Each structure stands twice: as structure tokens, then as C-alpha cells.
Amino acid sequence: MEYAVLGVVVPLLGCLFSAASSTHPECSIMQEIEEERSQCLAELIGDNQTSGCRRQWDNITCWPEAEVGEVVVRPCPKYFRFLTTFLGNVTRNCTSQGWTDVYPAPYAVACGYDSNSTPGEEQTAFYGTVKTGYTIGHTLSLIALTAAMIILCLFRKLHCTRNYIHMHLFMSFIMRAIAVFIKDVILFESGESEHCFVSSVGCKAMMVFFQYCVMANFFWLLVEGLYLHTLLVISFFSERKYFWWYILIGWGAPSVFITAWTIVRIYFFDVGCWEEIVESSFWWIIKTPILVSILVNFILFICIIRILVQKLHSPNVGHNETSQYSRLAKSTLLLIPLFGIHYIMFAFFPDNFKAEVKLVFELVVGSFQGFVVAVLYCFLNGEVQAELKRKWRRWHLERFLGSDMKYHHPSLGSNGTNFSTQISMLTKCSPKTRRCSGFQAEFSLV
């Protein structure tokens, strides 16, 4: 009977926990049951009672020793609080033949669990949809970001400080998507619950890598904000010197915080696979830097919008108000995914505030952020499109002129230099496509 109750309640609770934290669906419940079982068995060893009913663990509740004829009343297990606000009691009698069955039976009924009112299948479907949504989002982001990285690496004319920072941001999104996939495979794809009590080094290393990738992604969003603000505020600055500081902020700062969190977990809270998110001072080692980066980026976002408004109302800009506001709206929409402004919506609210809406925004919407950033800042970028068109035209000219020379000029080998020069002259960009790279960041925003 008790095993049957566990078979119904534990999977349901697992569905409720699966998207609310990074914990395996069953681990929180199983660990709580294991703690109560260990405590009960430890107390059983110390019992000296020879008559009546001995202390007993029925796989759900620990029943204390009792005399014959005694009625023992126990509160429902604590994990039922996740299923219902009503927590009743369960009762057993101690007889000369031993303990009687639990009544009212079964546990689920006695503890207020109602399959009709408890959000079982609907919650399961919702969390399944959320998981599918962020899996699709991270997959699209991974494909788009990989293509964007290849483009920015291959074309030397696109190599500049601004695009280097974009590439590091793209890499942080790629690492975050890969870390999510690895975490899901290790923690959620396995149907076994025994791993809840297994603390392998590989599993812990995976969680350290996951937390590092998440924090590095937030810090590179911060770097993008710092760079753009510096570009608009400071007229002349050494981009190479600042770039190394950006590297330290983007990759170095998360290393410091994650190392500190790892050391604290090893010496003070080395439980399970470290996937359990506990609201303690330990968790704030990770949470605080992320919240600070979100807040600073939001402040930079407001400052940059203010600067853009001033530039749009300067005498050098046309006085068509409709055009000005449309350009401002465009620049604002472009900055939102680059700075991750959508995270500010729930960053400083409690974790249980509008939990379902928060999950959709942070997991599903956030998973598409890398895809949107790759599209806006690579595939729709004017410099990238111009370079791709130039390479495409050059490739077609090489095919056309190469075929023409093959059939009309057999002695092409002796005139290879002139042929190469001819192609270079024909494929030069027109003056309209040659932009000064120093103004490209501002041009792409306004």
C-alpha cells in the first residue's frame, strides 16, 4: 500500500518541481524521505522496548514505539504540503498482533490529496511544453550563433573590436546552450532516481560548468552595454586596452564567483550533484553577481537611450519627428536583446511570484535570445551583408571569367597575374558600400 502511494505521489511532485528548479524531478522528495528514514532507523537502534509495538518505518512515516491498546496519531508527511494546503493526520492502533493498517486510508486521501483538484496532468503538460520550448529555442540559437561565428571569423574585413566583443557574446550563448543540453541529459533523461544520492565528480563538474556558462553569458551582455556606452560617451579611447578589460569582466569575473561557490559547496554543503537550488547564503554567491549585472545593464540601457534621444534632436539631424521616433524605436528594440533587458521584469521578484509566467519569460523567451542576437547583429548587419555580397560576386566572376578564358585563351597560365588583377578591379565595392567602421555601431542602431 505504501509503495503504491509513493508511486503516485512522487512522480506528480516531480512534475511540479521539474521546471521550477534545476533539480531532478524526484530528488527533492526522495532526499526528504531518505532523511526521515535515516532518522527513524537511527532511533530504532536505540529502542529497548520488548513489549507492545516497536518503532516502525512504513516507507512514508516513522511510527514511534507504543503499548498494546495505544492509538498513535501522526501528521501527514511534510512533502504533501506541495500538493495541498490541508494537512491531516494518519492513525494506527497498537494491538497484540502488532500495528494495524493506517486509517483513514490511503495516505493520499488522509493527507488531503484530491486527484480532481490537484494540478496534475495540466501542470505536467505545461512544464513539458516549457521544456520543449526552450529546447527548440536553444537549438535554433546554437545553429544561428555557430553560423554567425563562422562568418565573423572567416572574413578579415569584419575583424574589429566591436565584432570581437560580439563573437565573445555569441560564444557565451553557445556555451550556455550546450550546458543546458548536457544538464538535461544527465538530470532529466534518466528514469532512475538512485542518482539523487550519488555525488559523482563528473556530475558536480557538469553543474559547475553549467553555472559558469550562465553567469558568463550575463557578464558578456554587461560587456556589450559597457562597450556601447563607452563608444557613445568617450570620443577617443584605446579600444585594444579596453578590450582586455572586457575579457577579464566577461570570462574572468564569473570564474572568481563560480570558484568561490564551488569551494563553499565542497566544504559546507556537499550534497548530491549540486543541482539543488537552496535559498541560503551559499546560493547568493551566484545570484548576486547576476542580479547586479542585470541592474547595471538596465541603467546603461536607459543612459544609452537618453544619449540617442539627444543625438536625434541635435541640429545635424533632420526635423521630421516621425522619422526620428521611428529611428529611436528601432534602436531601442535592437538594444533589448543585446542587453537582455527582458530579464529585469522578474529579476528582483520572489521566486514564487507568478512562477509560470516567470518560467516562460526566463526559460522559453530567454532561449531564443541568442538566435535574435545572431540575426540582428550578424545576418542583418550592413557590413556583413556587404562582405557576403562582395564574396558572392567575386566567386561568380571567377567562375564566369575562368570559363571564358578556358575556351578562348588557352595560354591563360602565362597571364594569370593580369587575370587576378582584372577580377580584383571588377569586384571592388562601390563607394556606397564602403562605410567607415568607426561609425558602424552607431549606424546599426539608429
The N- to C-terminal Cα distance equals: 68 Å
Counted by DSSP, the helix tally is 14
Name the poorly predicted regions: 1-25, 410-446
Number of DSSP E strands: 5
Helix content: 55-70%
Largest sheet: 3 strands, antiparallel
Describe it.
This protein has 446 residues and is mainly alpha-helical. It is 63% helix and 4% strand. The chain has 14 helices and 5 strands. A 3-stranded antiparallel sheet has the order 3-4-5, with no helix packed on it. The longest helix is centred in the first third of the chain and has 34 residues, at 121-154. It is elongated. The relative contact order is 0.09.
Write the layout of secondary structure elements.
Elements: H1 2-18, H2 27-45, E1 56-57, E2 62-63, E3 71-75, E4 89-95, E5 98-99, H3 107-110, H4 121-154, H5 161-187, H6 201-233, H7 239-268, H8 284-312, H9 321-339, H10 355-367, H11 369-379, H12 382-408, H13 416-426, H14 440-445
Antiparallel strand pairs: 1-2, 3-4, 4-5
Helix pairs in contact: 1-2, 4-5, 4-10, 4-11, 5-6, 5-11, 6-7, 6-8, 8-9, 12-13
Question: Tags for this entry?
Answer:
446 residues, mainly alpha, 14 helices, 4% strand
How would you summarize what this structure contains?
The protein is mainly alpha-helical and 446 residues long.
